[in-house]
């Protein structure tokens, strides 16, 4: 055997004897001095942007090695462009995390064309839920679902696949409301301008975003909550009905899937394949951030709610929903397709 061959055999043998824990760079060394992308599938000025910026400011100091967290906005297709990127293209070494779109689970279950799977993400933790409200302007004259049963009420949305559009259409089906979807707006800021101009009567957003950006208008009565896009009534508005209170069994299954967006909320996740020790390190950092006094004070100053959930619990929730009986999921998919096709 030549000297070169003996060297190669020795190297292979040593590699085989190397403990797995030593074969990978420790999390602290990996993260030290590194730039970490925090991806969002929306603009920086909305709810996703606000929570991502908050995480970028406060999570860094709790991650071993204190990397730089850099926000990257990647809007498109209601968040699906960013989800497809992080799931399939982005590095899987822990150098990219994603404040995933809240609809990641219902898109996985109901949309045949998506290129991601909610159960494949490695969840770091949830900062806040995204239980939502659909609200009207005082000028519209719409103050309740009963008013929407009596007159056509326009809803401004970015697209028909948007949960705010779908929930309104489901109420048309289940309660006889007369919501009319006006789609095509680029984002919540543009919809807000349209509402001020009287172009649309209503729209929807997460309760957290509403409190953070529209709190004064909610308090003054200039905007009025109509119904909750959630699996149950919301504590700040106990008299306001939730969409899941209406319809037959099949309707309720579909609306519960839509409401899963509220449970996912504003959650950070790694794409599949990130090493377990780096996932554990960042989950630990997330837990410490949630208890950080400066982080909580920053939230309070911005009127942004905190409703944390661990990454482990979030992953378990996603797995549980996806274990629903196949017949129930298939019935929900059929109804969703019918609803979407009839209102495009």
Tags for this entry?
alpha/beta; D-Maltodextrin-Binding Protein, domain 2; 2 domains; six-stranded mixed sheet; three-stranded antiparallel sheet; 14 helices; 11 strands; 46% helix
Order of strands across the main sheet = 2-1-3-10-4-11
**How many domain modules?**
2
Question: Stretches where pLDDT falls below 50 for ≥5 residues?
Answer: 7-22
User: Which radius of gyration do the C-alpha atoms yield?
Assistant: 23 Å
List the total number of helices.
14
Characterization of this structure:
The longest helix has 16 residues, at 249-264. 42% of the residues are buried. With 344 residues, this protein is of the alpha/beta class. The protein has a 6-stranded mixed beta sheet with strand order 2-1-3-10-4-11, sandwiched between helices. Strands 8-5-9 form a 3-stranded antiparallel beta sheet, sandwiched between helices. It has a two-stranded parallel sheet with strand order 6-7. Helix content is 46%, strand content 17%. The protein has 2 domains: 24-129 and 265-335, D-Maltodextrin-Binding Protein, domain 2; 132-260, 3-Layer(aba) Sandwich (D-Maltodextrin-Binding Protein, domain 2).
Task: Give a quick summary of the entry.
Helix content is 46%, strand content 17%. It is an alpha/beta fold and 344 residues long.
Task: Present the secondary structure layout.
Layout: H1 3-17, H2 27-31, E1 35-40, H3 47-58, E2 68-73, H4 80-88, E3 96-100, H5 104-110, E4 122-128, E5 132-137, H6 145-150, E6 153-156, H7 163-175, E7 179-182, H8 188-196, E8 202-206, H9 207-220, E9 223-229, H10 249-264, E10 266-270, H11 276-290, H12 293-301, E11 309-310, H13 311-322, H14 326-341
Parallel strand pairs: 1-2, 1-3, 6-7
Antiparallel strand pairs: 3-10, 4-10, 4-11, 5-8, 5-9
